[in-house]
Design brief:
Blueprint lengths: L3 H11 L3 H23 L7 H5 L1 E4 L20 E4 L4 H6 L4 E2 L7 H8 L5 E2 L8 H29 L1
Antiparallel strand pairs: 1-2, 3-4
Helix pairs in contact: 2-6
Length: 157
């Protein structure tokens, strides 16, 4: 097994254009995934959430929050960007007290005394991960095809 950095270095040594084609494929995959997810995203009265879904390069979105503890080192990585609501919609929320300190022991005891307001929670509306899982095989084929195209062009020279 080789790491991503070593694989990229070896690929660039063999076919200099391969990483350029791979970067273009990354962006195309991210944009297409965003389109597919947008089609099945939960719709509110404003459509604001569904319209916030977009695919782009990570390097073009430096202020975006990464929910991973292991950020990528790939300078050409692309991803899906959406409103912060995505996580609540994807996984749902548990019933909770919306008063200040409502999630603490004191907040729960205040609620039992009639203080605060209880939010009933929301059911999960999975739309990102199921769509990505169904698209992932196609995305991998797109990426391999882009690299294969770079090899074909290199061999023609």
């Amino acid at each position: 097994m080789t790491g991503r950095a070593e694989l990229s270095r070896n690929l660039k040594a063999i076919v200099p254009n391969a990483l350029v084609y791979a970067a273009e494929a990354n962006l195309k995959i991210a944009e297409e995934a965003a389109d597919r997810i947008r089609e099945v995203a939960p719709r509110g009265a404003t459509l604001e959430y569904a319209e916030s879904l977009r695919g782009d390069f990570l390097k073009d979105n430096p202020g975006a929050l990464d929910f991973s503890n292991n950020p990528t080192k790939d300078k050409d990585a692309a991803g899906l960007f959406a409103s912060y609501l995505w996580r609540w919609l994807e996984y749902g929320t548990a019933p909770h007290n919306t008063a200040k300190g409502g999630g603490t022991v004191k907040g729960r005891s205040n609620f039992s005394e009639g203080k605060g307001h209880m939010h009933p929670g929301t059911a999960a509306q999975p739309h990102i991960w199921p769509t990505w899982r169904s698209f992932q095989a196609t995305a991998n084929k797109m990426k391999r095809a882009a690299i294969a195209k770079a090899f074909r062009e290199f061999n023609r020279k």
